[in-house]
Amino acid sequence: MRLLLIGLVMAWTGCLAARAQVIRVGTETPAVPTITVQGEGVVRVQPDRATLRFAVVTRDLDPEQARRRNAEASRRALNAVRALGIDERKLHLEALTLHPMREYNPDLRRWEEKGYEVQRVLRVELDDLDRLPEVVARVVQQGANRLQGIQYDVSNREAVRLAALQAAVRNAREKARQMLSELNREVGDPIRITEQALEFPRPLWRADVAALRTAEAAPEPEAYAAGEIEVQARVEITFAIR
Question: pTM of this prediction?
Fold first, then answer.
């Protein structure tokens, strides 16, 4: 019995020694001093493409008649664009909706049926902004009665995005360098880089459809100028301090 107890004690002691050895294995690397900064980059570019959305809206007491009138007006609007030589792949028919119209009669204190409204949304993509004023004028004169807006964009989005991110990284490094120079220290290698945000706005232009509806309305290119698109990027970088 005594020999058994001695054996158990020795085995337990051996376990403790082994555990102690595991804990002591290896050496701890001293913490590296770091600095974390945020950088911002801005790139300004001229848009070179646009997406035009317009709608054809028709109303009638008979839903089928409203649909037929809408189909005819939509056909005229699209044919007007085709006549300008726009690639067929750039023309898109989007949403088509039909719903009853109701109007509240305050004298009778009830809603009254006023027929049906049909709306067809069409989209035109343009790679030549010089043609935009004429396209807008044609579709409005040929049946479109709601211009939902024009969104400007650039064809080389990825290149612009990378340029903005590069500018943000340079800005972050310069911030770190300026701060550390006051402490007689230098910027070391980057330890962590995080892309915080990328803002790629697409300017939206709207117009008064009534002013464009007459055939005498001359397109005014200056009225469609989108200006520059300002792309902003933000990053957070942790640098080692030397």
Answer: 0.66
